[in-house]
Specification:
With 325 residues, the protein is mainly alpha-helical. It has one domain (15-321): Na+/H+ antiporter like fold (Up-down Bundle). It has helices at residues 20-45, 57-71, 74-82, 84-108, 113-124, 131-137, 142-154, 156-168, 176-200, 202-208, 212-230, 232-263, 268-279, 283-293, 300-321. The longest helix is centred in the last third of the chain and has 32 residues, at 232-263. The radius of gyration is 18 Å and the shape is globular. It comes from Streptomyces dioscori. This is Bile acid:sodium symporter. It is found in: Membrane.
Length: 325
């Protein structure tokens, strides 16, 4: 979901200094889990109403990624150049911990091939953009969070397909080349287009920024509805197993991300950012790729993850924000 906040240090923010975009993003990330739960329930109760909507999922994801690009600024890239080592650590932790956990959980729970591939694909996705807001709420290093999320998204076409082939290939055939093309079309190009719009029409974009988190939230909700509707029958028998897999995947990702920050002595604020950059995934992309390359059932873990990681992220942020640094 395209939710970003200013990259100033969290302790520099006050209620008076919050921009309209910041407030809108925080409200959206709070209400988002409720919206996605309602969307999932709609797909489960009225699956016939969304027959044939599966082909629209990549286009819907493109809208979300375009919104992400519009919220990006040159300051985000300057943050990468200012701390390349910290960003590299965050990127490495993200693309090692979550794919590895996905593979391990699939084996430990002995998931069916479709669900196993779906869990692994979630792990191989880039960082979830809502992680920026959750890091802000947790009083973490927002600049680092934005930098890692930005770079993980930009390198996804080069990293996600081969990782999925390596780890999920034992469960289902993986066409890595086709997956690269899909990520370029549904992620990289929309992000670059959004960034270009921000640079060329910044005066008009500033007025629209408060609405972008809501547009992204609603679009993700539609994606979840379509994914759930496509596998409504299977959900009744696999829902508990998928939920256990998602909770383990996300929870261990948050813990190991935080631990990686502490182990490398990045400091408390940066460690909090690492927790959310590792544990929160772009589940919309995972759902789109699973629907296109595997099956609607394989997209089910991504749909559940989309709900759960926002709930767990908000709870973890509330707990961390009350701890002394």
């Amino acid at each position: 979901m395209s939710l970003t906040v200013s990259t100033e240090r969290p302790e520099q923010h006050t209620t008076d200094d919050d921009t309209a975009g910041d407030r809108s993003a925080r409200r959206a990330v709070t209400i988002f889990p409720i919206l996605v739960l309602a969307a999932g329930a709609t797909g489960l109760l009225l699956p016939g109403s969304f027959t044939g909507w599966g082909e629209s999922v990549p286009y819907l994801l493109g809208v979300v990624m375009f919104c992400m690009g519009v919220t990006m600024t040159p300051q985000d890239f300057r943050g990468v150049a200012a701390r390349p080592w910290a960003v590299a650590l965050g990127l490495g932790a993200h693309y090692v911990i979550m794919p590895g956990l996905g593979w391990l959980i699939a084996h430990l729970l002995q998931l069916p091939p479709q669900l196993a591939a779906g869990v692994i694909l979630v792990g191989c996705a880039p960082s979830g953009t809502a992680s920026n807001v959750v890091t802000y709420l947790a009083r973490g290093d927002v600049a680092l969070s934005v930098s890692v999320a930005t770079v993980s998204t930009l390198v996804a076409p080069l990293v996600t397909p081969p990782l999925t082939l390596l780890l999920a290939g034992e469960y289902l055939p993986v066409d890595a080349g086709s997956m690269v093309v899909d990520i370029l079309k549904t992620v990289l190009l929309p992000v670059l287009a959004g960034l270009a719009v921000r640079l060329l029409a910044s005066r008009y974009v500033e007025r629209a920024l408060p609405a972008l988190p809501w547009l992204s939230a609603v679009t993700i909700g539609v994606i979840v509805t379509v994914v759930v509707a496509g596998s409504a029958d299977a959900i009744k028998s696999a829902a508990l197993l998928v939920f256990v897999a998602v909770v383990l995947h996300n929870g261990l990702g948050l813990a190991l991300g935080y631990g990686a920050g502490r182990l490398t002595r990045m400091g408390e604020p940066a460690s909090r950012a690492m927790a959310f950059e590792v544990g929160m995934q772009n589940s919309g992309l995972a759902a789109s790729l699973a629907t296109a390359h595997f099956s609607p059932l394989a997209a089910l873990p991504a749909a559940v993850f989309s709900v759960w990681h926002n709930i767990s992220g908000a709870l973890a942020a509330a707990w961390l924000s009350r701890r002394r640094r």
